User: Fold this.
Amino acid sequence: MAKRRIRNIPGTGISKITLAHENQKLERHQDLTHYENTFFQCGKCGTCRTVYKDAYWSKVCPSGEFGGFEAYYLGGKNLLTWAITTDKLKWSENLAKIFYQCSVCMACIQQCQIPEIHSFAGEWLMAMRQEAVKAGYGPMPEQAKYTDHVMTEKNPYMEKNEDRLEWLPSHIKLSSDAKLAYFVGCTSSYREKEVAIATAEILNKLNVDFTILEKEGCCGSPVYMTGQTEKAKKLAQKNVDIFKDAGIEQIITSCAGCYRTWKDIYPNKFGLDHGIEISHLPQFIRKKLKSGELKFNNKIDMKITYHDPCHIGRHMGIYKAPRDVIQDIPGIELIEMTRNRHNAWCCGSGGGVRSSFKDLSAFAASERIEEAKETKANALVSCCPFCLNQFKSNIENGEIQAMDLSELINKAL
Assistant:
């Protein structure tokens, strides 16, 4: 590990900080100590607060804007992280709340112009949550409660595991020996069931041979995102074993969080090299469109605006596939919000925020809904059931409709 060497700049009393190994290579998904020589590079310039050179310098950080204090922005969190790693601060309840009052949407990180922070700050924000758990100050009480339920009933919604497939209509055709599985996820199974139904109907309409495994459980994202890495890894291992034992070679998800967890966290954080091909629904549909296997026949006269979910946007770099699919649907007019793609404002439901910091969560959602309304679109469309549920819960008086992309695809087929 590179260690800092502090010398004076020749001819002055100003210290110069260098690294013992100037070419130290940083990697993702590491423990906090891996990044300890990077925190101090933050200049507290405030660039993390607004969109850099784009989108009219719009604000980007729900946590900072709601918290109204430096500690809630990335610059402040960088300083607090440095203080923890140098023993200038000790963990406390208030310090833990600062790091948990954040959806880890990574909009701030996108704006930073210091390469190491731009590329890796998301890693130490997550590592700090893991450290909070180790120190006994994390997760937040509400997050601990739903985690206990996840570990027994395989979902964070306080629902019974035996009811997980109640959404499944009798007309959906499944194949018991299929190599492709639809991983439904908890939110689509228990809250936004129309997303699960639409996805299953789409696969049937395309004559895709697929199955849904009854033993499917929570992917572990809500547990992992709150710093409970070991518990999340146990959930991951169970899912991998279930799907591998069933001979599954490909998984389609309609949930952005499930996609990211299976695609990135399982193999790269947990070391579970499952070898299963993971596709998010828009990716799968775009591939069918390009190959000519699919063509939309039904016209949908509607103006929509598209919300980029953080889990497939900034976390996984998927911006084009959903838009390609939307623009291929006859009659649809896509009107972009000012903050879109890598600059998209978070819906405020991720990272355990919605369960533990309801005021912040509602603030973020309302901000995004107002931005959507400014486009004069008929509907605010996303491809994440968690975002969908957040918008539905915060839209007032039906001023704009919230929809999942799967519903539009299904209507267009």
Q: What stands out?
A: Residues 141-287 form a domain with the Rossmann fold fold (CATH 3.40.50.1860). The CA atoms of residues 86 and 97 lie 20 Å apart. The chain has a mean pLDDT of 95. The two ends are 55 Å apart (CA to CA).
